[in-house]
Amino acid sequence: MNERREDVVRAVAKERAAAETARREAEQFRRVAEEAREVRDRHRDAVETARQERELLRETAETARIASEETRLAAEAARTASEEARAATEAARDAVVDAVRATADALNAALEQMQVVEDLRRALREIRDMNKIDRN
Q: How far apart are CA 21 and CA 11, in angstroms?
């Protein structure tokens, strides 16, 4: 009976040792699982940070694209305005040239009229002079 008792004590001791080993292994597994959760959480945070940075870069790129498009439109408007200004300048130059020609033509016509008047005065003087001579 003593043997049986010793066998039971040994069996209980083995079971306790096995239970203690299982408890230690379970605790070790719990620690590893907790560390894995922490690593997973850090990884999730890093992925979220990268996603937010990528979104910010996308928004920045979109803002830059819009600004670039607005700049392109402004440059196109400036080019169009420049072209219109060039055409208006050309038209104004043509108008000035026409005005100068018209002024020159008017001055020539006035000069011709003055020459006619002068010729008529000279002819009148000659006639008067001839009449004075005939009266004498």
A: 15
